[in-house]
UniProtKB/TrEMBL annotation, chain B:
Pfam families: PaaA_PaaC (PF05138). Residues 305-329 are annotated as: Disordered. It comes from Hymenobacter cavernae. InterPro entries: Aromatic_CoA_ox/epox, Ferritin-like, Ferritin-like_SF, PaaA, PaaA_PaaC. Residues 311-329 have a biased composition (Basic and acidic residues). This is Phenylacetic acid degradation protein.
Length: 266, 329
Protein backbone atom coordinates (compact mmCIF):
# COMPACT_ATOMS: atom_id res chain seq x y z
CA UNK A 1 0.00 0.00 0.00
CA UNK A 2 2.72 2.42 1.06
CA UNK A 3 4.74 1.54 -2.03
CA UNK A 4 1.79 2.18 -4.36
CA UNK A 5 1.22 5.59 -2.85
CA UNK A 6 4.89 6.43 -3.21
CA UNK A 7 4.87 5.32 -6.80
CA UNK A 8 1.85 7.48 -7.49
CA UNK A 9 3.54 10.53 -6.05
CA UNK A 10 7.09 9.91 -7.18
CA UNK A 11 6.98 10.57 -10.90
CA UNK A 12 4.92 13.73 -10.58
CA UNK A 13 7.70 15.97 -9.27
CA UNK A 14 11.37 16.51 -9.95
CA UNK A 15 13.73 15.78 -7.02
CA UNK A 16 14.09 19.54 -6.45
CA UNK A 17 10.33 20.08 -6.20
CA UNK A 18 9.96 17.04 -3.98
CA UNK A 19 12.57 18.50 -1.65
CA UNK A 20 10.75 21.84 -1.60
CA UNK A 21 7.47 20.09 -0.86
CA UNK A 22 9.05 17.95 1.83
CA UNK A 23 10.52 21.00 3.58
CA UNK A 24 7.24 22.82 3.32
CA UNK A 25 5.00 19.99 4.52
CA UNK A 26 7.34 19.58 7.49
CA UNK A 27 6.92 23.27 8.22
CA UNK A 28 3.13 22.91 8.27
CA UNK A 29 3.33 19.76 10.39
CA UNK A 30 5.75 21.32 12.90
CA UNK A 31 3.45 24.32 13.16
CA UNK A 32 0.35 22.39 14.12
CA UNK A 33 2.37 20.06 16.33
CA UNK A 34 3.82 22.91 18.36
CA UNK A 35 0.58 24.85 18.70
CA UNK A 36 -1.30 21.67 19.60
CA UNK A 37 1.37 20.96 22.21
CA UNK A 38 0.99 24.38 23.76
CA UNK A 39 -2.81 24.12 23.84
CA UNK A 40 -2.65 20.66 25.39
CA UNK A 41 -0.71 22.18 28.30
CA UNK A 42 -4.01 23.81 29.31
CA UNK A 43 -5.71 20.47 29.77
CA UNK A 44 -7.19 20.35 33.27
CA UNK A 45 -6.29 23.98 34.01
CA UNK A 46 -8.77 25.99 31.93
CA UNK A 47 -10.71 28.95 33.38
CA UNK A 48 -13.97 27.00 33.10
CA UNK A 49 -14.79 23.44 32.17
CA UNK A 50 -16.36 24.34 28.83
CA UNK A 51 -13.18 26.16 27.80
CA UNK A 52 -11.02 23.29 28.96
CA UNK A 53 -13.00 21.17 26.52
CA UNK A 54 -12.73 23.75 23.74
CA UNK A 55 -8.94 24.07 24.13
CA UNK A 56 -8.46 20.30 24.14
CA UNK A 57 -10.69 20.07 21.12
CA UNK A 58 -8.62 22.54 19.13
CA UNK A 59 -5.43 20.79 20.24
CA UNK A 60 -6.83 17.48 19.04
CA UNK A 61 -7.80 18.91 15.66
CA UNK A 62 -4.30 20.31 15.23
CA UNK A 63 -2.76 17.02 16.24
CA UNK A 64 -4.88 15.23 13.64
CA UNK A 65 -3.71 17.65 10.98
CA UNK A 66 -0.13 17.20 12.20
CA UNK A 67 -0.29 13.45 11.69
CA UNK A 68 -1.66 13.69 8.15
CA UNK A 69 1.09 16.15 7.29
CA UNK A 70 3.97 14.14 8.77
CA UNK A 71 2.69 11.04 7.04
CA UNK A 72 2.69 12.84 3.74
CA UNK A 73 6.14 14.32 4.45
CA UNK A 74 7.46 10.82 5.18
CA UNK A 75 6.06 9.65 1.87
CA UNK A 76 7.62 12.53 -0.04
CA UNK A 77 10.96 11.83 1.55
CA UNK A 78 10.77 8.10 0.81
CA UNK A 79 13.40 7.18 3.40
CA UNK A 80 11.13 5.05 5.55
CA UNK A 81 10.98 7.58 8.35
CA UNK A 82 7.64 7.50 10.19
CA UNK A 83 5.44 10.29 11.47
CA UNK A 84 6.97 9.73 14.91
CA UNK A 85 10.55 9.88 13.61
CA UNK A 86 9.75 13.24 12.07
CA UNK A 87 7.89 14.59 15.09
CA UNK A 88 10.24 13.36 17.81
CA UNK A 89 13.68 12.72 16.42
CA UNK A 90 14.91 15.97 14.94
CA UNK A 91 17.01 18.73 16.49
CA UNK A 92 15.56 22.14 17.35
CA UNK A 93 17.14 23.96 14.42
CA UNK A 94 15.47 21.52 12.02
CA UNK A 95 11.97 22.46 13.20
CA UNK A 96 10.29 24.85 10.81
CA UNK A 97 7.36 26.25 12.78
CA UNK A 98 6.91 30.03 12.93
CA UNK A 99 7.90 31.69 16.22
CA UNK A 100 4.31 32.51 17.13
CA UNK A 101 3.21 28.96 17.89
CA UNK A 102 6.06 28.15 20.26
CA UNK A 103 5.32 31.15 22.48
CA UNK A 104 4.20 30.17 25.99
CA UNK A 105 0.51 30.04 26.92
CA UNK A 106 0.80 32.91 29.40
CA UNK A 107 -2.61 33.82 30.76
CA UNK A 108 -5.83 33.05 28.87
CA UNK A 109 -5.55 36.37 27.00
CA UNK A 110 -2.14 35.41 25.59
CA UNK A 111 -3.47 32.03 24.50
CA UNK A 112 -6.47 33.66 22.84
CA UNK A 113 -4.41 36.27 20.98
CA UNK A 114 -1.86 33.69 19.80
CA UNK A 115 -4.74 31.49 18.66
CA UNK A 116 -6.57 34.28 16.85
CA UNK A 117 -3.47 35.37 14.94
CA UNK A 118 -2.80 31.80 13.92
CA UNK A 119 -6.43 30.87 13.16
CA UNK A 120 -6.97 33.92 10.99
CA UNK A 121 -4.04 32.88 8.83
CA UNK A 122 -4.69 29.14 9.05
CA UNK A 123 -8.34 29.28 8.08
CA UNK A 124 -7.97 31.66 5.14
CA UNK A 125 -4.84 29.89 3.98
CA UNK A 126 -6.49 26.46 4.07
CA UNK A 127 -9.43 27.79 2.09
CA UNK A 128 -6.99 28.58 -0.72
CA UNK A 129 -4.92 25.46 -0.28
CA UNK A 130 -7.98 23.34 -1.06
CA UNK A 131 -7.53 24.26 -4.70
CA UNK A 132 -3.85 23.30 -4.82
CA UNK A 133 -2.97 21.07 -7.78
CA UNK A 134 -1.18 18.90 -5.21
CA UNK A 135 -3.97 16.49 -4.31
CA UNK A 136 -2.48 15.48 -0.98
CA UNK A 137 -2.30 19.05 0.29
CA UNK A 138 -5.72 19.84 -1.15
CA UNK A 139 -7.25 16.86 0.66
CA UNK A 140 -5.62 17.71 3.98
CA UNK A 141 -6.78 21.32 3.57
CA UNK A 142 -10.32 20.27 2.78
CA UNK A 143 -10.54 18.27 6.00
CA UNK A 144 -8.78 20.81 8.21
CA UNK A 145 -10.53 23.94 6.95
CA UNK A 146 -13.80 22.92 8.59
CA UNK A 147 -12.04 22.56 11.92
CA UNK A 148 -10.12 25.79 11.41
CA UNK A 149 -13.39 27.65 10.81
CA UNK A 150 -14.54 26.60 14.27
CA UNK A 151 -11.17 27.54 15.80
CA UNK A 152 -11.34 31.00 14.27
CA UNK A 153 -14.88 31.55 15.51
CA UNK A 154 -13.79 30.49 18.97
CA UNK A 155 -10.75 32.75 19.14
CA UNK A 156 -12.52 35.72 17.48
CA UNK A 157 -15.34 35.42 19.97
CA UNK A 158 -12.89 35.51 22.87
CA UNK A 159 -11.01 38.49 21.42
CA UNK A 160 -14.35 40.30 21.45
CA UNK A 161 -15.33 39.18 24.94
CA UNK A 162 -11.98 40.07 26.46
CA UNK A 163 -11.62 43.35 24.55
CA UNK A 164 -15.15 44.46 25.36
CA UNK A 165 -15.45 42.79 28.75
CA UNK A 166 -14.06 44.23 31.99
CA UNK A 167 -11.29 46.69 32.67
CA UNK A 168 -9.04 43.84 33.74
CA UNK A 169 -9.70 41.73 30.66
CA UNK A 170 -9.04 44.77 28.53
CA UNK A 171 -5.67 45.37 30.20
CA UNK A 172 -4.71 41.75 29.85
CA UNK A 173 -5.61 41.49 26.20
CA UNK A 174 -3.79 44.76 25.44
CA UNK A 175 -0.70 43.31 27.05
CA UNK A 176 -1.02 40.06 25.11
CA UNK A 177 -1.49 41.90 21.81
CA UNK A 178 1.56 44.06 22.38
CA UNK A 179 3.63 41.00 23.19
CA UNK A 180 2.46 38.69 20.40
CA UNK A 181 1.70 40.96 17.46
CA UNK A 182 5.36 41.02 16.41
CA UNK A 183 5.15 37.32 15.57
CA UNK A 184 2.11 37.56 13.29
CA UNK A 185 4.00 38.87 10.27
CA UNK A 186 6.11 35.73 9.95
CA UNK A 187 3.05 33.73 8.97
CA UNK A 188 2.65 35.70 5.74
CA UNK A 189 6.32 36.40 5.01
CA UNK A 190 7.35 33.71 2.54
CA UNK A 191 10.62 31.86 2.99
CA UNK A 192 12.58 30.98 -0.17
CA UNK A 193 10.93 27.53 -0.05
CA UNK A 194 7.47 29.04 0.15
CA UNK A 195 8.30 31.56 -2.57
CA UNK A 196 9.42 28.78 -4.90
CA UNK A 197 6.27 26.76 -4.26
CA UNK A 198 4.11 29.83 -4.74
CA UNK A 199 5.84 30.48 -8.07
CA UNK A 200 5.04 26.90 -9.06
CA UNK A 201 1.41 27.54 -8.13
CA UNK A 202 1.40 24.71 -5.58
CA UNK A 203 0.57 26.82 -2.51
CA UNK A 204 -1.40 30.05 -2.03
CA UNK A 205 0.18 33.44 -2.52
CA UNK A 206 0.38 35.29 0.80
CA UNK A 207 0.41 38.75 -0.72
CA UNK A 208 -2.99 38.05 -2.23
CA UNK A 209 -4.18 36.67 1.11
CA UNK A 210 -3.09 39.67 3.20
CA UNK A 211 -6.10 41.97 2.52
CA UNK A 212 -8.51 39.23 3.64
CA UNK A 213 -6.56 38.70 6.86
CA UNK A 214 -6.37 42.43 7.57
CA UNK A 215 -10.06 42.90 6.91
CA UNK A 216 -11.02 40.16 9.34
CA UNK A 217 -8.72 41.53 12.03
CA UNK A 218 -10.26 44.97 11.51
CA UNK A 219 -13.78 43.57 11.79
CA UNK A 220 -13.12 41.55 14.96
CA UNK A 221 -11.07 44.26 16.63
CA UNK A 222 -13.78 46.85 15.89
CA UNK A 223 -16.30 44.64 17.60
CA UNK A 224 -13.87 44.13 20.48
CA UNK A 225 -13.38 47.92 20.67
CA UNK A 226 -9.63 47.32 20.30
CA UNK A 227 -7.32 49.42 18.12
CA UNK A 228 -5.46 47.45 15.45
CA UNK A 229 -1.72 47.68 16.22
CA UNK A 230 0.31 49.55 13.63
CA UNK A 231 3.95 49.55 12.63
CA UNK A 232 5.28 46.78 14.78
CA UNK A 233 8.68 45.34 13.83
CA UNK A 234 8.15 41.77 12.64
CA UNK A 235 10.12 38.91 14.19
CA UNK A 236 11.15 36.28 11.68
CA UNK A 237 13.22 33.11 11.87
CA UNK A 238 11.24 30.10 13.07
CA UNK A 239 10.25 28.97 9.59
CA UNK A 240 13.96 28.78 8.75
CA UNK A 241 15.00 27.07 11.98
CA UNK A 242 16.02 30.12 13.99
CA UNK A 243 13.84 29.77 17.08
CA UNK A 244 13.15 31.48 20.38
CA UNK A 245 14.53 29.95 23.57
CA UNK A 246 11.17 28.33 24.27
CA UNK A 247 11.45 25.61 21.64
CA UNK A 248 14.24 23.68 23.35
CA UNK A 249 12.15 23.18 26.49
CA UNK A 250 9.14 22.04 24.49
CA UNK A 251 11.26 19.49 22.68
CA UNK A 252 12.86 18.25 25.90
CA UNK A 253 9.37 17.28 27.04
CA UNK A 254 7.95 16.23 23.70
CA UNK A 255 10.91 14.02 22.81
CA UNK A 256 11.59 12.63 26.28
CA UNK A 257 10.21 9.12 25.74
CA UNK A 258 11.53 8.64 22.22
CA UNK A 259 15.00 9.83 23.24
CA UNK A 260 15.10 7.80 26.46
CA UNK A 261 13.87 4.56 24.88
CA UNK A 262 15.12 4.63 21.30
CA UNK A 263 13.60 2.38 18.67
CA UNK A 264 10.70 0.97 20.68
CA UNK A 265 7.04 0.52 19.80
CA UNK A 266 4.44 2.22 21.93
CA UNK B 1 -53.40 -1.66 48.74
CA UNK B 2 -54.42 1.15 51.06
CA UNK B 3 -52.26 3.77 49.43
CA UNK B 4 -54.24 6.60 50.97
CA UNK B 5 -52.78 5.77 54.35
CA UNK B 6 -49.19 5.50 53.23
CA UNK B 7 -46.86 8.39 53.98
CA UNK B 8 -45.02 10.16 51.16
CA UNK B 9 -41.88 8.39 52.29
CA UNK B 10 -43.55 4.99 52.10
CA UNK B 11 -44.94 5.76 48.66
CA UNK B 12 -41.47 6.79 47.59
CA UNK B 13 -39.97 3.55 48.87
CA UNK B 14 -42.71 1.65 47.07
CA UNK B 15 -41.70 3.22 43.77
CA UNK B 16 -38.08 2.41 44.47
CA UNK B 17 -38.92 -1.19 45.29
CA UNK B 18 -40.87 -1.43 42.02
CA UNK B 19 -37.69 -0.24 40.25
CA UNK B 20 -39.34 2.95 39.03
CA UNK B 21 -37.10 5.89 38.19
CA UNK B 22 -37.27 8.98 40.35
CA UNK B 23 -37.23 12.18 38.30
CA UNK B 24 -36.14 15.68 39.46
CA UNK B 25 -39.67 17.04 39.97
CA UNK B 26 -40.86 14.00 41.95
CA UNK B 27 -41.14 14.14 45.69
CA UNK B 28 -38.10 12.64 47.41
CA UNK B 29 -36.86 12.50 50.99
CA UNK B 30 -34.39 15.22 51.85
CA UNK B 31 -31.78 12.66 52.80
CA UNK B 32 -32.15 10.96 49.39
CA UNK B 33 -31.61 14.30 47.67
CA UNK B 34 -28.59 15.08 49.86
CA UNK B 35 -27.06 11.66 49.40
CA UNK B 36 -27.38 11.96 45.63
CA UNK B 37 -25.96 15.47 45.49
CA UNK B 38 -23.03 14.28 47.58
CA UNK B 39 -22.46 11.20 45.43
CA UNK B 40 -22.97 12.81 42.01
CA UNK B 41 -20.90 15.89 42.78
CA UNK B 42 -18.18 13.69 44.24
CA UNK B 43 -18.27 11.72 41.03
CA UNK B 44 -18.11 14.89 38.92
CA UNK B 45 -15.18 16.20 40.98
CA UNK B 46 -13.39 12.88 40.47
CA UNK B 47 -13.67 13.29 36.71
CA UNK B 48 -12.23 16.80 36.86
CA UNK B 49 -9.44 16.07 39.33
CA UNK B 50 -8.79 12.84 37.42
CA UNK B 51 -7.80 14.94 34.41
CA UNK B 52 -4.65 16.01 36.28
CA UNK B 53 -2.67 12.75 36.70
CA UNK B 54 -3.36 11.75 33.10
CA UNK B 55 -2.90 15.28 31.79
CA UNK B 56 0.56 15.00 33.32
CA UNK B 57 1.62 12.77 30.40
CA UNK B 58 -0.03 14.44 27.40
CA UNK B 59 3.00 16.53 26.51
CA UNK B 60 5.32 13.53 26.98
CA UNK B 61 3.26 10.78 25.30
CA UNK B 62 5.64 8.50 23.39
CA UNK B 63 3.97 8.68 19.95
CA UNK B 64 1.59 10.96 18.09
CA UNK B 65 -1.07 8.28 18.10
CA UNK B 66 -0.84 7.75 21.86
CA UNK B 67 -0.86 11.50 22.39
CA UNK B 68 -4.10 11.87 20.41
CA UNK B 69 -5.77 9.02 22.26
CA UNK B 70 -4.70 10.34 25.65
CA UNK B 71 -5.78 13.89 24.91
CA UNK B 72 -9.15 12.66 23.65
CA UNK B 73 -9.51 10.55 26.77
CA UNK B 74 -8.79 13.40 29.15
CA UNK B 75 -11.21 15.52 27.17
CA UNK B 76 -13.85 12.81 27.67
CA UNK B 77 -13.30 13.07 31.43
CA UNK B 78 -14.06 16.79 31.25
CA UNK B 79 -17.24 15.92 29.33
CA UNK B 80 -18.22 13.41 32.01
CA UNK B 81 -17.70 16.10 34.62
CA UNK B 82 -20.04 18.37 32.68
CA UNK B 83 -22.93 15.95 32.45
CA UNK B 84 -22.54 14.86 36.05
CA UNK B 85 -22.61 18.46 37.28
CA UNK B 86 -25.73 18.92 35.16
CA UNK B 87 -27.33 15.83 36.71
CA UNK B 88 -26.60 17.19 40.18
CA UNK B 89 -28.04 20.56 39.17
CA UNK B 90 -31.40 18.88 38.53
CA UNK B 91 -31.47 18.26 42.29
CA UNK B 92 -31.11 21.96 43.03
CA UNK B 93 -27.34 22.11 43.61
CA UNK B 94 -25.48 24.85 41.72
CA UNK B 95 -22.23 24.11 39.96
CA UNK B 96 -20.57 27.08 41.60
CA UNK B 97 -21.55 25.81 45.05
CA UNK B 98 -20.34 22.29 44.27
CA UNK B 99 -17.01 23.69 43.07
CA UNK B 100 -16.75 25.93 46.10
CA UNK B 101 -17.18 22.84 48.30
CA UNK B 102 -14.48 21.03 46.36
CA UNK B 103 -12.10 23.96 46.59
CA UNK B 104 -12.73 24.36 50.32
CA UNK B 105 -11.89 20.69 50.86
CA UNK B 106 -15.47 19.94 51.99
CA UNK B 107 -16.37 17.73 49.03
CA UNK B 108 -14.40 14.59 48.27
CA UNK B 109 -13.19 13.13 45.01
CA UNK B 110 -11.82 9.68 44.30
CA UNK B 111 -8.66 9.15 46.36
CA UNK B 112 -6.97 7.28 43.55
CA UNK B 113 -6.10 10.58 41.90
CA UNK B 114 -3.93 11.49 44.85
CA UNK B 115 -1.34 9.03 43.61
CA UNK B 116 1.28 10.31 41.14
CA UNK B 117 1.71 9.17 37.52
CA UNK B 118 5.45 8.53 37.30
CA UNK B 119 5.96 6.62 34.06
CA UNK B 120 4.18 6.07 30.77
CA UNK B 121 3.01 2.69 32.07
CA UNK B 122 1.03 4.57 34.71
CA UNK B 123 -1.16 5.85 31.90
CA UNK B 124 -1.73 2.21 30.94
CA UNK B 125 -2.53 1.31 34.56
CA UNK B 126 -4.91 4.22 35.01
CA UNK B 127 -6.87 3.08 31.97
CA UNK B 128 -6.69 -0.63 32.65
CA UNK B 129 -7.08 -0.75 36.44
CA UNK B 130 -8.52 2.58 37.53
CA UNK B 131 -11.06 2.81 34.72
CA UNK B 132 -11.70 -0.91 35.14
CA UNK B 133 -12.57 -0.36 38.80
CA UNK B 134 -14.61 2.71 37.90
CA UNK B 135 -16.62 0.69 35.39
CA UNK B 136 -17.46 -1.95 38.01
CA UNK B 137 -18.63 0.83 40.31
CA UNK B 138 -20.49 2.60 37.56
CA UNK B 139 -22.23 -0.04 35.46
CA UNK B 140 -24.77 -0.71 38.24
CA UNK B 141 -25.34 3.05 38.37
CA UNK B 142 -26.88 2.90 34.89
CA UNK B 143 -29.83 1.33 36.75
CA UNK B 144 -29.67 3.61 39.77
CA UNK B 145 -32.99 4.97 40.99
CA UNK B 146 -32.47 8.64 40.10
CA UNK B 147 -33.23 9.11 36.37
CA UNK B 148 -30.80 11.88 35.33
CA UNK B 149 -27.90 10.15 37.10
CA UNK B 150 -28.72 6.80 35.52
CA UNK B 151 -28.93 8.33 32.05
CA UNK B 152 -25.66 10.24 32.48
CA UNK B 153 -24.01 7.00 33.57
CA UNK B 154 -25.06 5.13 30.45
CA UNK B 155 -23.04 7.56 28.39
CA UNK B 156 -20.14 7.67 30.84
CA UNK B 157 -19.88 3.88 30.95
CA UNK B 158 -19.71 3.54 27.18
CA UNK B 159 -16.76 5.89 27.04
CA UNK B 160 -15.10 4.39 30.11
CA UNK B 161 -15.08 0.92 28.63
CA UNK B 162 -13.38 2.34 25.56
CA UNK B 163 -10.81 3.96 27.85
CA UNK B 164 -10.25 0.72 29.67
CA UNK B 165 -9.51 -1.11 26.43
CA UNK B 166 -7.04 1.62 25.50
CA UNK B 167 -5.32 1.26 28.87
CA UNK B 168 -5.10 -2.48 28.50
CA UNK B 169 -3.67 -2.03 25.02
CA UNK B 170 -0.94 0.28 26.35
CA UNK B 171 -0.04 -2.41 28.91
CA UNK B 172 -0.10 -5.14 26.27
CA UNK B 173 2.19 -3.16 23.98
CA UNK B 174 4.60 -2.62 26.86
CA UNK B 175 4.50 -6.26 27.89
CA UNK B 176 5.18 -7.43 24.36
CA UNK B 177 7.96 -4.87 23.93
CA UNK B 178 11.54 -4.53 25.11
CA UNK B 179 12.59 -5.72 28.62
CA UNK B 180 12.66 -2.08 29.81
CA UNK B 181 9.06 -1.68 28.71
CA UNK B 182 7.93 -4.84 30.45
CA UNK B 183 9.73 -3.72 33.62
CA UNK B 184 8.02 -0.36 33.35
CA UNK B 185 4.65 -2.13 33.18
CA UNK B 186 5.39 -4.34 36.20
CA UNK B 187 6.67 -1.45 38.27
CA UNK B 188 3.51 0.53 37.53
CA UNK B 189 1.28 -2.43 38.41
CA UNK B 190 3.14 -2.78 41.72
CA UNK B 191 2.24 0.79 42.60
CA UNK B 192 -1.36 0.86 41.29
CA UNK B 193 -2.75 -2.52 42.33
CA UNK B 194 -3.51 -1.80 45.98
CA UNK B 195 -4.73 1.77 45.51
CA UNK B 196 -7.24 0.51 42.89
CA UNK B 197 -8.56 -2.06 45.37
CA UNK B 198 -9.12 0.87 47.72
CA UNK B 199 -11.31 2.55 45.09
CA UNK B 200 -14.26 0.40 46.17
CA UNK B 201 -14.30 2.12 49.52
CA UNK B 202 -14.05 0.84 53.09
CA UNK B 203 -15.04 -2.66 54.10
CA UNK B 204 -18.79 -3.23 54.25
CA UNK B 205 -18.90 -3.20 58.03
CA UNK B 206 -17.15 0.18 58.06
CA UNK B 207 -19.12 1.82 55.25
CA UNK B 208 -21.61 4.16 56.87
CA UNK B 209 -23.69 4.96 53.80
CA UNK B 210 -24.01 1.55 52.18
CA UNK B 211 -27.16 0.18 53.84
CA UNK B 212 -29.34 3.17 53.10
CA UNK B 213 -27.97 3.63 49.59
CA UNK B 214 -28.81 -0.01 48.91
CA UNK B 215 -32.30 0.46 50.30
CA UNK B 216 -32.81 3.42 47.96
CA UNK B 217 -31.24 1.52 45.09
CA UNK B 218 -28.70 4.27 44.57
CA UNK B 219 -26.19 1.50 45.13
CA UNK B 220 -26.77 -2.08 44.04
CA UNK B 221 -23.70 -3.93 45.26
CA UNK B 222 -21.65 -3.54 48.43
CA UNK B 223 -18.05 -2.36 48.41
CA UNK B 224 -16.67 -5.79 49.24
CA UNK B 225 -18.78 -7.49 46.55
CA UNK B 226 -17.41 -5.14 43.92
CA UNK B 227 -13.84 -5.48 45.19
CA UNK B 228 -14.10 -9.27 44.88
CA UNK B 229 -15.49 -8.95 41.35
CA UNK B 230 -12.62 -6.68 40.42
CA UNK B 231 -9.94 -9.06 41.67
CA UNK B 232 -11.61 -11.98 39.90
CA UNK B 233 -11.74 -10.01 36.67
CA UNK B 234 -8.24 -8.52 36.79
CA UNK B 235 -6.05 -11.41 37.94
CA UNK B 236 -6.54 -13.40 34.71
CA UNK B 237 -5.86 -10.23 32.68
CA UNK B 238 -2.61 -9.66 34.56
CA UNK B 239 -1.68 -13.30 33.91
CA UNK B 240 -2.45 -12.84 30.22
CA UNK B 241 -0.08 -9.88 30.18
CA UNK B 242 2.58 -11.91 31.96
CA UNK B 243 2.57 -9.55 34.94
CA UNK B 244 2.67 -10.49 38.62
CA UNK B 245 -0.03 -9.13 40.90
CA UNK B 246 1.82 -7.81 43.97
CA UNK B 247 -0.11 -9.85 46.55
CA UNK B 248 1.50 -12.94 48.14
CA UNK B 249 -1.82 -14.00 49.62
CA UNK B 250 -3.53 -14.15 46.25
CA UNK B 251 -4.92 -17.63 45.64
CA UNK B 252 -7.78 -19.23 43.72
CA UNK B 253 -10.51 -20.49 46.03
CA UNK B 254 -12.35 -23.39 44.43
CA UNK B 255 -15.21 -23.32 46.92
CA UNK B 256 -16.15 -19.68 46.39
CA UNK B 257 -15.11 -19.75 42.73
CA UNK B 258 -13.14 -16.59 43.29
CA UNK B 259 -9.76 -15.39 44.49
CA UNK B 260 -8.74 -15.00 48.10
CA UNK B 261 -6.58 -11.95 48.43
CA UNK B 262 -4.59 -10.06 51.02
CA UNK B 263 -5.76 -7.28 53.27
CA UNK B 264 -5.82 -3.76 51.89
CA UNK B 265 -3.67 -1.35 53.89
CA UNK B 266 -6.56 0.51 55.50
CA UNK B 267 -4.23 2.82 57.35
CA UNK B 268 -2.97 4.11 54.00
CA UNK B 269 -6.56 4.28 52.69
CA UNK B 270 -7.70 6.54 55.53
CA UNK B 271 -4.53 8.62 55.36
CA UNK B 272 -5.17 9.43 51.70
CA UNK B 273 -8.91 9.94 52.20
CA UNK B 274 -8.11 12.38 54.97
CA UNK B 275 -5.85 14.47 52.81
CA UNK B 276 -2.40 13.04 53.50
CA UNK B 277 -1.61 11.28 50.22
CA UNK B 278 1.38 12.38 48.17
CA UNK B 279 -0.66 14.49 45.73
CA UNK B 280 -3.72 15.58 47.76
CA UNK B 281 -2.42 19.06 48.29
CA UNK B 282 -1.17 19.60 44.75
CA UNK B 283 -4.27 18.21 43.03
CA UNK B 284 -6.63 20.40 44.99
CA UNK B 285 -4.35 23.41 44.64
CA UNK B 286 -4.23 22.92 40.86
CA UNK B 287 -8.04 23.06 40.75
CA UNK B 288 -8.17 26.10 43.04
CA UNK B 289 -5.52 27.87 40.95
CA UNK B 290 -7.35 27.17 37.69
CA UNK B 291 -10.56 28.51 39.19
CA UNK B 292 -9.02 31.60 40.75
CA UNK B 293 -6.83 32.42 37.78
CA UNK B 294 -9.86 32.00 35.52
CA UNK B 295 -12.06 34.36 37.54
CA UNK B 296 -11.27 37.40 35.38
CA UNK B 297 -12.11 35.39 32.23
CA UNK B 298 -15.51 34.39 33.56
CA UNK B 299 -16.17 37.95 34.74
CA UNK B 300 -15.23 39.35 31.32
CA UNK B 301 -17.58 36.94 29.56
CA UNK B 302 -20.44 37.91 31.84
CA UNK B 303 -19.70 41.62 31.54
CA UNK B 304 -19.61 41.34 27.77
CA UNK B 305 -22.89 39.43 27.65
CA UNK B 306 -24.45 42.10 29.84
CA UNK B 307 -23.21 44.88 27.53
CA UNK B 308 -24.75 43.08 24.59
CA UNK B 309 -27.99 42.67 26.44
CA UNK B 310 -28.11 46.38 27.18
CA UNK B 311 -27.37 47.21 23.56
CA UNK B 312 -30.05 44.65 22.64
CA UNK B 313 -27.58 42.78 20.46
CA UNK B 314 -27.59 39.04 20.04
CA UNK B 315 -25.21 37.44 22.51
CA UNK B 316 -22.74 36.37 19.84
CA UNK B 317 -22.85 38.34 16.67
CA UNK B 318 -19.67 37.06 15.18
CA UNK B 319 -19.04 33.85 17.04
CA UNK B 320 -20.63 30.46 17.58
CA UNK B 321 -23.71 30.42 19.75
CA UNK B 322 -23.31 27.00 21.32
CA UNK B 323 -24.36 27.11 24.93
CA UNK B 324 -21.52 24.84 25.92
CA UNK B 325 -19.04 27.60 25.24
CA UNK B 326 -20.65 30.07 27.57
CA UNK B 327 -19.57 30.26 31.16
CA UNK B 328 -22.20 29.26 33.68
CA UNK B 329 -23.51 32.01 35.85
Amino acid sequence: MQATLNAAVAPAYSPEVRQLLFDYVLQLADTSLLLGHRLSEWCGHGPILEQDLALANIALDLLGETRSLYQYAAELEGRRRTEDDLAFLRVATDYRNPLLVEQPNGDFAHTVVRQFLFDNFHYHFLQQLQTSPNEHLAAIAEKSVKEAAYHLKWSAEWIIRLGDGTEESRQRIDKAISKLWRYAGELTTPTPTEKALQDLGLIPNYTALQPTLDAYVAQVFAEATLPVPQQIAVQLGGKQGRHSEHLGYILAELQYMQRTYPGMQW
Amino acid sequence: METAELTQEELFQQRIDADQRIEPKDWMPDAYRKTLIRQISQHAHSEIVGMLPEGNWITRAPSLKRKSILLAKVQDEAGHGLYLYSAAETLGASRDQMLADLHAGKAKYSSIFNYPTLSWADIGCVGWLVDGAAILNQVPLCRTSFGPYARAMVRVCKEESFHQRQGFEIMQTLCEGAPEQKAMAQEALNRWWWPTLMMFGPKDDESPNTARSMQWRIKRFTNDELRQKFVDMMVPQAEFLGLTVPDLALQWNETKQGYDFGEVNWEEFWQVVNGNGLCNHDRLQARVDAWEEGAWVREAALAHAEKRRQRQEPIHKSGPTRKAELPQD
